[in-house]
Amino acid sequence: MTIVEGIDARGMQHCETTTLGVLLRHEGLELSEPMLFGLGSGLGFVYWDSKAMDFPFLGGRVKPFELTRNLAAGLGLELVVGETTSPRKAWQNVAASIDAGRPVGLQLDSYHLDYFRTRVHFAGHVVAMYGYDAQDAYLVDTAQQGGAVSTSLAGLARARAERGPMAARHRSFTLTAPRDLAPPQDRVVPAIRACAHAFLNPPIANLGYRGIEKAAERVPKWLQRGGHPHEHLARAALLMEKAGTGGALFRNLYRDFLAECAQYVDSGHLRTGHGLYAEAAALWTRVAALIATAGESGDERNLVEAGSLLRELSRVERDAMRALSAL
C-alpha cells in the first residue's frame, strides 16, 4: 500500500473545492470552502437545452476545472496538468505523484465510483487521490459522499476513461504553493471583479444574468415536455439544492465568500453585493422548492411562480454583480 502522509481527508460540500482543499492543505495553505470557491471566481449560471437532451440543465458555476485554473492563476500556484488518451500513461501520471508523496486531483465520471449512492453519468466530477494498493484507490470526496472513501482500481480506470459531456482525457493535476506566496486575502478583489465581468458580459444568452432570464421564460413550460417531466422536475430541484452545490445553486457559497471578504475589504459595494446575494440565495431555494412541488403535484402554477422568481433573480444578481464590479 502506498499512502501520502499527512493528508487531511476532509470532505466539503462541493467536489472541486473539496479536492482543492485537500491539495492546498498538504501545501500548508488552509482556506475555507467559500474562499476557495470565490478566489476561483466559481460562480456563474448556464441554462442548457438541446434536442439531444431529455430535459434542460441549470448550472450555477463555471465549467469543470475552470475554478481550479482561476484559483491557481490568481494565487500564483504552480498547476501541473496531465491529460492523455492512454490509460497506461494516465495511471503512471497519478502513481508517480503519489509515490513522490504528493496527492493528486482527478476529473472523472462519478457513475463508475463504487461508493457513489446515485448512479448517474457526470464526467465533471473531481476527487483527490492520496493512495492506492493492489486492488483499491484511496480518495477524498465530498462530505455527502463520505469524505475519505475508496474505490476499485478497475472502477477508477473506467471513471477516468469515460467520454461524453464535460469529460476530460484522463485529467490529473497537482498544485504547488511557492515559498513567497502572497496572502490570499490580497487576491479577493481581482477574483470578485473577474467573476462579475464574466457574469455581466456573457458571450451567449444562455449564460450569466441573461441565462437566468432565459430560464424565467422556459421553466413555466417544463411540464409540457415529453418523456417523464415529473421525474425530471424532481431531479432538477434535487440537483439545485443537494448535488454538491452547497444549496441555492452555489449562491450560499458565494454569499459566504463575500461575507468573509468583508473582514479584509471595507467597501460599500462589497456590502451591497453581499446583501443582494443573501437575497438571491433565499430566492434560489424557493425556486427549487417550487420546481419540486410542480413535479409532485403536476400543477403548472408552481412553475409559473418559479419563472417570476427567476425573473427577479436575474435583476438581483445583475445588480449585485454591478456593485461588485465597482470594487
Automatic annotation (TrEMBL):
Domain Butirosin biosynthesis protein H N-terminal: 14-142
Domain named DUF4872: residues: 155-324
Top-rank lineage group of the source organism: Bacteria
Protein's recorded name: BtrH N-terminal domain-containing protein
The organism of origin for this protein: Streptomyces buecherae
